[in-house]
Specification:
- 36% of the residues lie in helices and 14% in strands.
- It is of the alpha+beta class.
- The longest helix is centred in the middle third of the chain and has 28 residues.
């Protein structure tokens, strides 16, 4: 496929990562907050039990969202990047983190949550597909799960637990002003003496008309930089910016509670946001200046990564405007708009009932006082003059983003979707947001000389299932475990073959920006290995569908998940305000219940008895059928298997041979489809690998301590770094530092000379494989003895 020129290149989409960078007010520079994830988590240790290196991205966002998620500019994510704004990169979600604060990122569904309201038809599809928000007792909402638990848990007890509502975060205060503006307040002491205020306008690029492509982004620039009050307070520790995405525009300010001059800042920050959104100076000179800024920003985005992003979004969302209506817009239109076009768009969409304010942080005041400050700053907000002439709806969209989706739902859900469509058609009803059933996706190929590796992105688009009840949490935990196991198996086979680069990334996540959930398998490899790399992914998905998890796999990942969740509960109160705010905003948009870390961990512990082998195996078909049964006719597919809705191959134009020559990369969509649908013969059960829980028992450790009487023979403290340095009587050196950042947790690095070279050639203790088994045990159990 010929690479597009930038003149027709859609702006802001997704790479093998499906996800371009957020469109911000470039003149101020985007605010970046990066928190590296710990690779020492229990989940990571369990994952490495079967592979030599952890995957670069694996998420179950609607289910298990990353509690601490790093942001990035242009993301490269082989699966489904989490994003904020027009682009947010996918981070690997630590499983415990997902559960901690109720589940992160989402992709809307036939039940798309939209500011508390939904299309009636969409609500009906959602209720029938997922059981509805409040099913009556005795309904069969959880029937499939209850069947899988029948031999291990009392059905009455299990149903009562699954139907129990998740506890919402007790410290979150929500409200609505008389003019319709909604607000969310959450006190948070990290970082101390600072707070976040973000004003979300529920308008984005999909709200633009055909001749307005890019106007939402330009209006963001002009309003933010056209505020008369912004320059008065930004600076001296206060930072601000804005970004535009498909479904919303967000203005955000990060400020000290009291500035260096001793001035109390929250009222002033709220005044700035009011001025930016509802009282900006939309001058002709400002419009002309920001048009130049937008054009310059577009040129900076013209990279091969961005082009891949665009390809992924375009083909994933072939069924709606998300595939073409990118926030950067069409540059010829941007250049041509008069200033009045900006004023009209602002008048149409910037009204208080179309806004939500999020305030999170250390306010130096109680919540009632913050609520009063919000009322004082925004009570006079009103639709702009000319709103009626600009055809303003003056009410929030019932569906965000306002698009319809084609879903690859399993047969029992697809049947309901099709039936409702048929009924609506027979009655002459026209719902522009009614979802429909997607045909099985075919391969679209993007071939470019600037690509070096081949990536194959296999998508299944599904409706979002809001996380409201314990049964929803149970479903998402099972999905997380299944994805971790499949990731581990595929990557393990890759590492056992040869040194050629191969990686698989798996994801099942929801996203408010796209209004749907997407399951993704992304295989990235050297061009000459592409058939084998895809074959392995298909074989292992089929193996997991056919035989399910092994007992040891479930034990490893379940234990790791509970340990991570416990650690996160211990760290409650240590999460930065910015991450809390992003988390709440995304969950609200998707209709999820927002829990705090402690409540989330308690819910997970209570549910642990229901995380069984049969329950996990029951989740395999629904989650993996779209790849394991690609090309299988409807009459032969499992009833619970979803279907593929899009496949995008991003491949290089040439490839190196084994001899080092460069030759054209000969690959076609038909060949890719054939590899995905091929019969690879009999699938055999997986080997269940036993890993001991401990290397040395507690009794043996006590006996060794008594025998050797270990002591410290030398002790010093390095003042500049705060590192304590100790030497044990056996010569081992120990360096450590005490930190308050992550209560209840520690990071340990043990360096031991020799490794496998110290193994003997005999079979048995200390013999072949002893070092590998010992290392695996330490990785999974977190310690050499029973104490962990």
């Amino acid at each position: 496929m010929r690479s597009p020129t930038f003149s027709n290149l859609p702006a802001n989409s997704r790479t093998s990562q499906r996800n371009p960078a957020p469109l911000t007010c470039a003149s101020l520079g985007p605010y970046s907050h990066n928190l590296p994830r710990s690779s020492s988590s229990s989940t990571a240790r369990a994952l490495r039990a079967r592979e030599t290196r952890p995957p670069s991205a694996m998420t179950v966002r609607g289910a298990v969202g990353a509690w601490r998620r790093p942001r990035a500019t242009i993301a490269a994510r082989g699966v489904r990047a989490a994003r904020r704004g027009t682009v947010r990169r996918a981070e690997e979600d630590r499983l415990g983190r997902a559960i901690g604060w109720s589940f992160l990122k989402t992709h809307a569904k036939a039940c798309a949550f939209v500011s508390g309201r939904e299309s009636r038809r969409m609500r009906e599809v959602s209720a029938r597909a997922s059981g509805g928000d409040a099913p009556a007792a005795g309904t069969s909402r959880w029937s499939r799960v209850l069947q899988s638990l029948a031999t291990t848990v009392d059905p009455t007890v299990a149903e009562a637990l699954l139907d129990e509502e998740l506890p919402p975060h007790e410290e979150i205060r929500r409200g609505t002003l008389e003019n319709g503006l909604k607000y969310v307040i959450l006190p948070n002491k990290v970082p101390e003496g600072r707070f976040e205020a973000h004003l979300e306008m529920h308008v984005g690029s999909v709200d633009e008309r055909e001749t307005e492509q890019g106007l939402a982004h330009l209006v963001e620039h002009v309003t933010f930089l056209g505020s008369r009050k912004r320059d008065q307070w930004l600076g001296s520790g206060t930072r601000g910016n804005a970004y535009t995405d498909f479904h919303h525009t967000v203005f955000h300010i990060h400020a000290p509670t009291t500035n260096k001059d001793g001035h109390y800042m929250p009222p002033n920050v709220l005044d700035i946001l009011y001025d930016v959104a509802f009282n900006p100076a939309l001058l002709d000179t400002r419009v002309a200046k920001e048009k130049k800024a937008v054009l310059a920003e577009a040129q900076m985005m013209n990279t091969i990564e961005y082009r891949v992003d665009c390809q992924l979004l375009e083909h994933l969302h072939w069924d709606n405007l998300l595939g073409t209506r990118f926030p950067i817009g069409k540059l010829d239109q941007v250049e041509a708009w008069p200033a009045q076009a900006v004023r009209d768009f602002h008048a149409r969409w910037y009204f208080p009932a179309n806004a939500t304010l999020y305030v999170v942080g250390d306010f130096g005041a109680d919540v009632d006082e913050v609520e009063k400050m919000i009322e004082t700053s925004f009570e006079n907000a009103a639709p702009a003059e000319g709103a009626e002439e600009a055809e303003s709806p003056l009410s929030r969209h019932a569906v965000r983003p306002p698009v319809k989706h084609a879903y690859g739902s399993p047969a029992h859900e697809a049947g309901e979707i099709q039936r409702i469509n048929d009924e609506a058609k027979a009655q002459g009803m026209d719902d522009p947001f009614m979802p429909f059933v997607a045909p099985e996706g075919k391969v679209s190929m993007f071939q470019h000389e600037h690509l070096s590796n081949a990536s194959f992105n296999i998508f299944s688009k599904l409706p979002i299932k809001p996380l409201k009840r314990m049964g929803d949490l149970h479903r998402t935990v099972l999905q997380r475990i299944v994805l971790l196991v499949l990731q581990s198996r595929i990557q393990s086979r890759y590492t056992e073959t040869n040194a050629d680069y191969k990686r698989v990334e798996l994801d099942h996540s929801d996203s408010a920006r796209e209004g749907c959930c997407v399951s993704t398998v992304t295989v990235t490899c050297e061009p000459r290995e592409w058939e084998f790399a895809l074959q392995v992914a298909v074989e292992e998905a089929r193996r997991l569908q056919e035989f399910g998890l092994t007992s040891s796999e479930l034990d490893r990942f379940k234990a790791a998940m509970l340990r991570d969740s416990e650690q996160l509960a211990q760290q409650a109160g240590c999460v930065p305000s910015l991450e809390n705010l992003d988390f709440v905003m995304e969950h609200d948009a998707c209709g999820h219940t927002v829990m705090d870390q402690v409540a989330g961990h308690e819910a997970l512990v209570r549910m642990s008895e229901c995380i069984t082998l049969d329950a996990c195996n029951g989740a395999c078909d629904e989650l993996l059928g779209f790849i394991g049964e690609y090309g299988v006719s409807d009459d032969k597919r499992r009833e619970t298997s979803g279907r593929t809705t899009a496949i995008v191959a991003c491949v290089p134009a040439t490839m190196p041979t084994v001899e080092g020559e460069t030759v054209p990369f000969d690959i076609t969509p038909a060949r890719i489809e054939a590899v995905l649908a091929a019969d690879y013969g009999e699938i055999t059960p997986p080997e269940d690998i036993f890993v001991p829980e401990v290397l040395i028992s507690d009794e043996d450790i006590v006996a060794l301590v008594e025998e050797t009487q270990p002591t410290f023979t030398e002790a010093t403290m390095h003042e500049p770094t705060g590192v304590y340095q100790r030497t044990l009587s056996n010569g081992i050196r120990v360096n450590y530092k005490v930190l308050d950042a992550e209560p209840g947790s520690a990071f340990l690095r043990l360096v031991i000379p020799g490794g496998r070279s110290r193994e003997s050639s005999e079979v048995g203790p200390g013999g072949i494989g002893a070092a590998a088994v010992g290392l695996r045990t330490i990785q999974e159990a977190g310690g050499g003895g029973g104490g962990g």
